[in-house]
Amino acid sequence: MRHLLKNAGLAGAVEVDSAGTAGYHSGDPPDARARAAGRRFGVDVGGRARQFKRADFERFDYVLAMDRANFDDLIELTVDESARQKLFLLRSFDPESPEGASVPDPYYGEDEDFDDVVRICLAACTPLLQRLRREHRL
Fold first, then answer.
1. CB neighbours (10 Å) of residue 14?
2. For the chain, how many structural domains are there in total?
C-alpha cells in the first residue's frame, strides 16, 4: 500500500502500518524472501514486526486481515460495532478475488509463492486506494 500511495503522490496523506496478531516476531524485519519479492516488483517491503493492539482500532480507519484466522483473532479484540466495521479481509477489495479469500502464507513455499503474495496484495490495494481517494477526497 505504501508503494501505491507513494506512486500516487499520497505518501503523507495516509498512515499505513503492519502488525501481527501474535507477538513472536516483534522487532524483527520482514522475511528476507518477502523483501526480495518486493524488490522484484519495485516495492520496498520494510518496517519492523509488532503485535496488533486493541487501540489500533481507534487509531486506524481500516484494519486489514490477510487471512480468515487473523480476521477471527481480530474480531475477538473488537469492543464494539464501530471497531468491527473497520475490519476487512484484504482480498475483499479485489473484485477478481473469490469471496472470503485469504492471502496465502508463503512462509514454507518457494520464491514464486512470495511473488504471488506481492501480486495479490497489489491487486487488493489498488482498488482500496481508489476507495480511499473517494471516501477521503484525496
1. 18
2. 1
Which structural domain range is residue 10 located in?
2-136
Instruction: Provide the whole-model pTM.
Output: 0.93
Q: Alpha-carbon distance 64 to 62, whole Å?
A: 6
Give the separation between CA 8 and CA 129, rounded to whole angstroms.
Answer: 9
Which residues fall within 8 angstroms of residue 114, CB to CB, at 6 or more apart?
A: 31, 33, 34, 36, 37, 106
Domain CATH code at residue 21: 3.40.50.2300
Express each pLDDT in 19-38 by its tens digit: 999 888 898 899 999 999 99
CA distances from 76 to 21, 49, 105 (A): 11, 21, 21
Distance, in Å, from the CA atom of 1 to the CA atom of 10, rounded to the nearest integer, reads: 11
Bridge partners of 65? Answer: 89
